[in-house]
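Narrative of activities, Objective 1.

The group set out to show that a structural description can be obtained from nothing but a protein's sequence at a throughput compatible with the screening campaign. Below is one input-output pair from the validation batch, recorded exactly as produced.
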Amino acid sequence: MRKKVTVIGAGNVGATCAQRIAEKGYADVVMLDIVEGLPQGKGLDILQCGPILPFNNNMIGTNKYEDTANSDVVVITSGIARKPGMSRDDLILTNMKIVKEVTENVAKHSPKCIIVCVTNPLDAMTQLAWHVSKFPKNRVLGQSGVLDSARFQTFIAQELKVSVEDVSVCVLGGHGDTMVPIPRLSTVGGIPLPELIAKDKLDAMVKRTVNGGAEIVNLLKTGSAYYAPSAATVKMVDAIIFDKKKILPCSVLLEGEYGIKKTFVGVPCKVGDKGAEQVMELKLTPEENAALKKSADAVQELLKIMKLE
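Output recorded for this entry:
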């Protein structure tokens, strides 16, 4: 029996997520949006790719949460996207109302699902989804580090003219201006990154990674990134559906790990069919620990605004 994956939000990120999952053929996909006709039209368009690619699983668009019932995984992409000059944090008051309502409906209709949150500001919205759903902490995780790592890997591979598959990076912290790329724990073919790239160039790559989303927003002028964010999200969904036990950087609830408590922040996790099954603790330098703590503090500030602290 095929699994069932629901994507909430039929905008660019949501629709591209739904398309990528449908094309893999391992799950029936439901795409929900409040705009009448939008998910139905995009869903039908995706479904008609089936004979061409091919895939045989079902794909529907809907405005009714009843159609999402008993999903195995629910991806939440609902919310407004960034515009030039906006930070992810500027979205918080609008998106918290959206994510709260969405999560209530998800928990009602799919009480056993795993939630993957993509809405920005990512870490705060993931904590809100956990708070509202009342799910165990392992069943609510946010997509952050997979995307941030991909951006860092891309810049490194371009600089060194090597395959992206040979680049392994470490990116911790919140999905925003306080994220913490760690070159010391990043490698190319097993060789530590600082041995291959001069510090000034490496610092520039780190800065570009931190500002990766804003760079795309400023180029597009109307809209934000969605190809890479959707691919990163689907990598997480794959790990859950197939119980891959992959080590992926995800936003998860920390309860003492890395010295951080009661806060969702990005760290390496073992991801399988139970969700975020284990937090992997790295030995960090004092400077790296301080940067991660600063990132967690930034998430806490948003939680105070949302009255979730």
